[in-house]
Specification:
The chain has about 475 residues and is α+β, with helices and mostly antiparallel strands. It contains 16 helices and 23 strands. It has three domains: about 100 residues, Rossmann fold (3-Layer(aba) Sandwich); about 70 residues, Dna Ligase, domain 1 (2-Layer Sandwich), CATH 3.30.1490.20; about 240 residues, ATP-grasp fold, B domain (D-amino Acid Aminotransferase, Chain A, domain 1, 2-Layer Sandwich). Helix 4 packs antiparallel against helix 5 and helix 12 runs antiparallel to helix 13. It comes from Caldimicrobium thiodismutans.
Amino acid sequence: MALEQDIRKVLIANRGVPAVRIMNTCRDKKIKTVAIYSTPDRLAYHVFLADEAVHIGEAPPLDSYLNMEKIIKAATEKKCQAIHPGWGFLAENPAFAEMVESAGLIWVGPPPQVIRLMGDKIRAKKIAQKANVPTIPGMLNVQSPEDILKWMREEEVIFPILIKAAAGGGGKGMVRVDSAEEIPVAFERARSEAKKAFGDDTLLVEKYIEKGRHIEVQILGDKFGNVVHLFERECTIQRRNQKILEEAPSPSIDDNLRQEICFTAVRLARELGYYSAGTVEFLLDPKTRKFYFLEVNTRLQVEHGVTELITGLDIVSLMFDIAQGKKLPFTQEDIYPNRHAIEVRINAEDPRTFNPSFGTITRLEIPLGPGIRVASGVYEGADVPPYYDSLIMLLMSAGADRTEALRVMDRALSRGLRVEGIKTIAPLLLSIIRHPKFIEGNFSTRFIEEYYQELISAFREKTSDDEALKIAQYVAEISALGPQPWM
């Protein structure tokens, strides 16, 4: 039986967009917030927004946002009752979650043992199979290129295949292989990437699903065994296995498949004894209409906002309620989506090369108007440092249906958003949502690679010359026509 505990003050173990997103809900719930910041982040937006802020260390994440002891010490010194990790950094670190609980603090997230189980891709796949959740044909714990060839012969698997890190995520340590000759090099590359990114070079191999669609289900569970799903999101538009655009509901599936995929996610969550918010990710094979388990994200997802827009729920608020030992205030029957929502990630990157773009934001105009929601981690005049994730803003649109949501997103990106001083991928996002294949819902995880040249040729560069021209035109008009009555 979960005892109710009171959270009056929380330390947010994050920065930028996730920290600001959580602080907004805390303000609604009258929970005081403590921000942490590194030296280059001392003037960051999340620092101004919090009730209190603690300097945590120098720029490198290991000295600051990944410094577990320092973060817990700051939370205790500031008399916090809880820590919310947001997404990224320590959000899926079971050792940190255990340290938080050992320090007598409330961990706003799922049980540490579930985070540990799901962080290991091999064990996660075994648990999914036990819960009767379909998984991609594959081989666990691959020791050599010979193992892969033997598995392909025995299971009659044809190319392409995917070699990936068992401890992986975020597209790191993941290599596609199209022929037998490529296997040895791909095997070594995946192994060294895995070792570098996760400190663990265990690999697994899977059949590569051509033109796969990435569909994930948002789940919520309380400490009393109640689990519900908040329907699915489509996250197929990706670049190098990193999502950049998400929408809900998915345009790829019908109601029968939707029901099957969502209830499969709930079944797995129950098997895990899951509580808090989480996401079960699946890959849909559009040819066979079969879906396969990919992984469980044991945290708040970047794209949770589209689910909030279609259901009217505040997932962060519910995470706090669950952490405090409260029961879910609704059942599955009470949740029904009634809108379509789209989210794009505004990253500080060059839209042509995807190289990071950092510096000072000299001008920032944020889109307004009906159907728009913005989660920003910056302000005009803020610095975007080169040390962290390039996400500066989440831009969301909602409408009665997909066409309407796309129309609102077009307005937001083409007329509403203006960022100067750094480059962002906004022009690429606008090209994507205007592409006929995207509009008709005909796309796969390789969409950007397939249409890359076409997408960048559609960019319309807005420069300061445009502004100068506008001013010159205005001056010329006044000189020619003389003072106007309205002046």
